[in-house]
Structure formats: structure tokens, C-alpha cells
Amino acid sequence: MIKVILDLQDENTMQNYNFISESQNLHSETTQEHAITWKEKITSCRWLVGVVVCIQMSCSMTLRMNMSMVVVCMNPPNMTVTLVLNGTNITKRDEYLDNYVEWDSNTEGLLIAGYYIGLFITSMAFGALTDKVNVKAMMIGLTLVMVVTSLLTPVLTFVSPYLVLATRIILGISAGGLEPGATQILSNWAPLPERAQMMVLIETANSIGAILNFLLSGLICSIPVLGGWPFIYYIFGGVNLLAIVQWTLVIYDKPSMHPRITRKELDFIENHKEKKNLTLPIPWLKMMTSPAFWGCVLGFITSGVIFMIMAICLPLYIEQVLKFDATVNGAVSALVFVGRLAGAVVFGHLADFVYSKGRLSICQLRKLFQVTGLLGSVPIVIWIGFLRQNDRLLAVVLMILYWFIVSAMNSGFRVNPADIAPRFAGLINGISITLTAVLSAIAPLIVAAITPNGTAEEWQLVFYGVVGVSVIGSVVFVILVSGDEQEWAKDPTMVSDIAITVSDNDMKNGLYSESTPLLHDSKS
After folding, report:
1. 413 inside domain
2. How much is the pLDDT for 30?
């Protein structure tokens, strides 16, 4: 073993060096002292909180996305009754049709977009409030508002579509605080060694909620009472009320507030958290003029527009072109999200595996998976555009495969905020969600304008639009994205590089080397 002696001439530099070494030793000691077994992990309070957050977000997704199936289920079927009167057959309209409402495609697109209009209004505002309010109480209140508006919607449907639009906007306004709130709670509870595992629960919840929404909505529509579709609101509203009860009993904003948490678990969480300087200003001008920032944001927007067209508007395509009934429509739409969930898991592990090999930089890795998701799915969506009713089975298989491949993007744009600006990752997410909500609100209106008759040829134009978004999004992301922490995002109070002066004798003996590796290896 060779002992290297450095001539540190600056007293402040020496103190910083000692601080880093002591911090690393302390981290090592606390990790060993608070070693957590697998049994302790799965029975811990933090993971119970994580599971309940996942359940709550899954349930809320059924209220947020249900309009996509409602507009399909509430369309009146061709129901007539043939009577024989004085030897003459008379066709009479079945009174059961009064339980249905028929809207044109523009109205349906507007109602689907209403949620995103509300989301745009509040997503950034709630994101800024989550570290200043009681998040547990905030999410209970927001969910109750969503439940009440959903329960009122069936009655208002027979009054005016604009009143339904108002309920969708109110629901979107309320939902604007759910994801920031869930993110804040998980951030408070997640120790660094488990942060990635816990934070992915939100994305998992969104996919699970979408699967439940489409699958159960299709089944609920077949209920032979009131046309079936109003029960989508009633059943999902009741499920969310049960989720609120569970939330009230289990969730606490911070570990220190939990009455049943053990001292060992509390110490483990607190000793595995990074220290943040919350008083530092946000460099708005530098951030807004940063190519890396816009590369990341435009990646979010590209994903959001594709999601709106290929997922939210999917039931309309399945009904109008593939001619599936409502029950099968829901099952097919749910299968698509199973493909999306499976793709997120597979490509997430693949990204970690590729990175562990050290052959690609972070920037190259992000570009690889973003382009794989966008361009790799282009041939499939073009193929789908040429399919007709007789190709229904193939269309379903291709849609599942499409979403499986597109999910590779989650290892691209979605984790990029933490690459370029760890301190402002939440802020970048909030800005991205806000801008995405604007275009997501416009997308259904464009789809409705392109498909007034719901023909296969009209939907083919929609799919060509998705191809254009995918290609342009890939090019922009590759040009602008970065994998390095940006200068404007760095904490100026933290020591990143420390100048070390090496004596002339050391240089003569061949001991001169870069300072940073020496500082991060206390055994050198």
C-alpha cells in the first residue's frame, strides 16, 4: 500500500477535504448501522405509505380518464320495437333509448379536453404549494371535489354538454394537485437507497388506473339499468371514497409525524436523505434560455401529445373503425395499457443494464431510449392506419406492441430532469406538465375535426400526424438534450472541485494527478 501525502497549502481547502472524507465515512457507518432486511422493508411504514399512495393515484385515474369510455358507452344503440297493429307492422322507438345521449365528434373531443384545460390552470400552482401545506389534507379535499363533480355528471348530462364540460374542468383543476402531492409525500418518506423504487409507484399507478378504467368501464356499460354508463361515475366515485378512508388512516406527511413508526426505520430514513438548500433562488433566465431545459421539456410534450392521441382517443378509434362493442372496447383499451406497463418495466431494467456496462454516457443513453421509443414505433402506427374492421385482431396486437415500444421513452425524457438539474427536477416537471396540458387539451379537438365521420381513412390521417410528431420529437430531443448537470442548476454553496497544490517533490516522484479522484477515495 502506497501512502500519498498531499501538500494542501490552503487552510479552507483542507477543511473542505476533511469535511468530504468525514461525510463519506459517516454515510458508510450509518448504512451499516441501519442495515434493513427484506422483511423489515416490506413490513415498514414507508412502504405501506408507498402502496397506499399507489392505490389512491390508481383510483383517482379512473375518475380522470373515464370520459374516454363514457362518450362511447352513452351513444344510443339502434333499439326499436316492431308492433303489429291491425295487421300492419309498426316500428316504434324503444323508450330505453332515453337513457342515452348522442353528441357529435366535436362535442366529444371538447369534453375529453376539458380535464386538461383544468389541469393546465393549477398544476404549477399546486406544485409550488406542496412543500408549504398539509399535503394529506390537501389531497383528501381535492379527491372529494373530484368525487362530487363525478357523481353530479350523469344528471347534468341530460341538461347541457357545457355543464358536463364545467365538471370536467373542475375535475382537472382538482387533479392538478394530486401528482405533485403524491410526489411530495413519497419524497418525504423515501430514503435515497429506495428513492427510485418508490418514485416509480406514481407512474405505475397511472398505468394501473388506466387499465382499471378501460376494463371495468366496458363491463359497467353492459349493466341493463339507465343505459349502464352512469354507473361508471357512481362506482368509480364510491371506490375513491373508500380510498380516501384508507388514505386518512395510513398516510402522514412526514415520517416523524407517524405514531407507529419504529426508531430504527425513522433513523434509516433521516440518515439517508440529501441535504437541500431551500433558500437558493431559481435562475429563471438561464433556465429558460438553456437548450438542455427545452430538450427535456419538449420530450415531455412529445410524449403527452402521443399519449392523448393514441391512448385517450383510442376507444373512439376502436368503436368507429374496428367496430367493437363497448365491453370489448374497454378490454382492448385496457390491454394496450398492459403493454405500456410491461414496456416501462422491461426498458427500465434494460436502461439500468446498459448504463452499468459503462459503454454509453448518460446523454447517449437518454437519446438511445427516446429515439427507440419514438422512431421504433413509427412503422407500427403506419401499419395500424391501413387496417380495417376485418383486421381487428391484428390491430389489437399491433396497438399493444406499439405501446410496449413507445414506453422506452420513459428511460429518456422522464428521468432527464434529474440529469440536468437535480435541484429543479420538480419545477421542470411542473413546467412540462403545464405546457403538455395545453397541447393535450387541443389534441382531442384536432382529432375530432379530422374524424367527423369516424372513417378509417380519416383515422389514417390522425396516425400520420402521430408519425410526424414522433419524427420531429426525436430530432429535437437528439439536438437539444444533455446528460450533464447544467451550470445554472448547480448549488453554488456546494464544493464541487477543490484545488490541491502538490509539492515539487511529489511531482518529481510521479505523484501528480487530478484532484477530484483523490478527494473521492479516502483510501488513496
Report:
1. yes
2. 41
